[in-house]
Structures are given as C-alpha cells and as structure tokens.
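Write out this protein's structure.
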Amino acid sequence: MDIYVLLASVAIIVYFFFVATPYGNRHGFFSEASMPEDGQILPYFLMTTPPLAVYILFCILSLKRIAFLRWLNYPLIIFNIHLFSLFCLSAFNGGTIFWLILITGPVTLILIIVFLIIGLIKDLKYLRGKRRQ
C-alpha cells in the first residue's frame, strides 16, 4: 500500500500542475487583479475538486495500511491537501485565495516537519522489526 499512496500523490501533483494549472492560468483563476471568467468557474471546479476529493478519500482509507515510506508519504499528503485545496478554492475567488498561504503556510510547514519526523521514527521502528525477524 505504501507505493500506491506514493504513486497517487505523484499522480495528483502531475495532474494539478500539468492539467488544472494551465487551464486555470488561461482563464484567470490565479490572477489577483481579476475574477475568473464566469463560464469557466464550473468546469474548473469540476476539474479540481473531484480529483482532490478522491485523493483525500484514498489517503484516509489507506493511511492505516502504510507500513513503510511514511517519512515520504505523510508530508506529501499534507502538502498535496494544503496546496490543492487552495487551487480548488480559487474557483470561487480567483487568485486572492492564495493570500491564505501566508496564514496557513507556516502551520502547514510545521505539520510537514512534524510528520516527517514521525514518519522517520515509525520507519526506523519498522526496519528494526524487520531486521530482528
């Protein structure tokens, strides 16, 4: 399950950066100076929100079954959920939503560091247990 969560994380990063971001950039979703085009709000919302919801559901269902690579999976999940939920919210307010990064960014950075350490500790315990067997 470890590698599947990692692959899902990489897949959603690739999807958002190579499909959703160019579309949103073309239609003004990331501009602070203007609101997104009215006819493009629903398609962009449907382009971003369902993939993120499926990813979050997959991660929730798979979180207990991750046995190894926690040091990589945990921070990546937090990063993806934080950044791509802001992408989804930009469908409503455009680029102004990215000011939330200033508020939520430090908290997310601290969470990423904490879960990186937690993942490292759990991976080391897993490796020690495997070595004793």
